[in-house]
Design goal:
By secondary structure, this protein is of the alpha/beta class. Among the domains are: 1-30; 34-210, Nucleotide cyclase, GGDEF domain (Alpha-Beta Plaits, 2-Layer Sandwich); 228-432, 3-Layer(aba) Sandwich (Rossmann fold). 50% of the residues lie in helices and 14% in strands. It has 27 helices and 16 strands. The strands form 3 sheets. Strands 1, 2, 3, 4, 5, 6, 7 and 8 form an 8-stranded mixed beta sheet that branches. A 5-stranded parallel beta sheet has the order 10-11-12-9-13, with helices on both faces. Strand 2 (80-85) and strand 3 form a beta hairpin.
Length: 683
Amino acid sequence: MRCAACDQDNPAIARFCLACGLPLVTDAVPREERRVVTIIFVDLVGFTERAESLDPEDVRALLTPYHEFVRREIESFGGVVEKFIGDAVMGVFGAPLAHGDDAERAVRAALVVRDNARRVTESGLQIRLAVNTGEAVVTVDARPALGESMVAGDVVNTASRLQSGAPINGIVVGEQTYRETRNVIAYSPSDPIIAKGKHEPLRAWIALEALTEAGVRQPIDGSIVGRQAELSLLGALWSRVLAEQIPYLVSIFGPAGVGKTTLAGSFLAEQEHDGARVLRGRSLPYRESGAYGALATQLMRLCDSYESDPPDVLDRKVRERTGALIPTRDEAAAVARHLGAILGIDSGAAATDRETLFTSARRFIEAAAREQPTILVFEDIHWADPNLLDLIEMLATRSHGLPLLLVTLARPEFLDARPAWGGRLANYASLTVGPLGEEDARRLAVLRLGDEERAAEVTQIAEGNPLFIEQLAATIGETSSGALPTSIRALVSARLDALPPRDRALLLDAAVIGKVFWPDALEALTAEHDLDAVLDELERRDLIRREPDSILEDQDQYAFTHVMIRDVAYEMLPRSDRARRHAIVAAFFERSTGTSAQAIGAMARHWLSAGDHPRAIEQLTRAAAQAERGWAKDHAALLYREALALVPEDDTERRRSLRRSLAIASTASFHLDDVRSPESRPD
C-alpha cells in the first residue's frame, strides 16, 4: 500500500504509514468484475431434523470436521469457500482468479467430497452436491473468511436449486458445466429438475466418475491442411499481376482464430520487402465505423495523412496528393472533392450519384498503382458496409493495365450474406484457411512452448486452430499450474489473471477503447506512470501488437492480437464501470480526432455505451449526414434510425426532424439499385 501523503510503500497489513505515521486510506469502493464462475454446493441430508434433538455443542462437534474436510478439498482444487450456511457449504471456482479449467476442477472436487464424505460425517450422515457454471458479478477484493460476500448472480441461485434436486450421495451439474467437462467426466442423464422461481425445468446430468487423470485430455482428431499451398497461390497470383499488369481480387476465408491474418501478413511482408506498397484497412463490427471505413484508412495513408489531422490539413493533403497523381487539373480537383466525401471532410463534394463517387475513388487508386505496385488489404469484410463491398468489386472489375492486388479477409459466414461475391469477376480467386495439419500444429506448439511432451497435449486440445495453440501455450508458460484450459473464454481469462496487476488493469482499459487503441487514449483512463513499459510487456506477452501505421499522427497504434482477448477483457468490466470509462474515451476522441466518419462513429459508440444519449444522438446524426454525402443512403438511414430510437418521446421537434431525414434517406436508399444500373439512366 502506498501512502497518499508521503508516497511511501507499505506492507499490505499496515494500517499506518511506516514513514510518516498517518493512517493509510484504502479505496472504500469494492473492485468488481464480471466473470464466468463455477459454483459448488454441498449440503448434508436430514441434518436439520437431527440437529433439533442435539445439544449445540454436539452440533458443532459434527459440523466442524465436515466443514474442514469440504473446505480442504475445495481449496486443494483451486476453489474458494465463500460461505458456510448451517450444514451447507458454497464454494467458488474461477474467482478471484481463473485457471482455465475451473468447471472441471469443481466437478473433480465434488467427486472427491462425495467419495470421502461418509468417512468424515460419522453416524451415517449423507450429502447432496451440485455444480453450476455461469456469469456472475465478483467482488474481487472480498474477504470470505471475514464473512464478506464475493459472488452474486443467478448462477448461485441455480446451483442451490440444482443441489436440492440431487440424489442422495450424488452430484448433479448444470448444462454449461456439463458441456465444458463432458470429455473428461462420465455423466448419466437426469430428469429435468423443477426448481422454485424458474419458468422452465433445469436440464441436469449426474456426474459419475472422472474419465482421465487431472490435466489429461483424450486425443482429438481433426482434418489437416497446410499453409504452404496458400502462400504459393498468393505468390503466384501476385507474380501474374506484376508480369501481366492484370488487377486481381483474392478473398481469404476462415473462422476466427484459424490464421487468416497471419497468412496474409506473411505474404504481405515478403511483397512489401520487395518493393510493393501495402495499404491495410479494417472493417469494424460497429455500424459507426463509416460506410467506407477501411477504404478511408487506405486513402489517408496514400495522402500521408492521419486521423488526428485537422479537417483543413487533411483537405490540403488530399488535394496536393491528388494533383500529383492526376495531371489534369479539373479532374484532379473533382476527384479530390469526392475523396473528401469518403473521408468525411466537410469541404468534400457530395457526388451526384454513387457511380460518380466510385469512379473518383477508382481513378485515384489506379493512379497510385501506376506510381508503385500496390496491394490493398481489406480485413474483416464480414463486418463491411455493402457500399464498400460494391466498391471493391467495381475496382476489380473496371481497373485495367496496372499492378493492383485486392486482398479481402472474411469469416465463412460472409458468403451467407454475399453468396455471389466475386462471381462476375474473371480475375478472382478465393482460398479457405482450415486447421493446421498435425505436424504443423505440433511444430507451432513446440515453438511457443519449447517442450515436446507438453506440446503434444496442446496440439491435441487445440484441434489445429492456431489461436488455441498460441493461447494454450502462453497460459501454460505463464502459470505454475499444469492444468490445460477447456474453453477459449476460460483460457483467455486465465491468461489475463496470470498477468501482473498493472498489466492486467491496462489491458482492461484498452478493451474499452476497442480492438485498436492508442497510448494517449489510455492515459486518459489510467494513472499508470510507466505506460510505455507496460505496453512493451503486453506486446512481449503477445497480447497486443504495435501496428505499422497509425491513424493518429505522432502516436503509436496498438491492436489486440485477437479480438477474443479484447472481448473477454471487456466482458470482465461491470456495466457501471464500462459506462464511466466509455465517457472518458468519448471525450478523448472529441479532443483528439477530426471530423471523419470513423471519428464521429467512434464518438457515437462511446457516448452511447456511456449512457449519454443526447451526445450519442448528435454524433449519430452527424455520421448519417456524412454517409448521405458519400452516397451511402442505406447506411445513413440506418444511423438516423438508431438516433431516432434514442430520442425521448416528448422531444417532438427532434423526433420530427429525424423522421424527415430518415424518410429522405430511406427513399433514396430504396432507389439505389436504379442509380447503380446504367441501363436505368435516361439518355
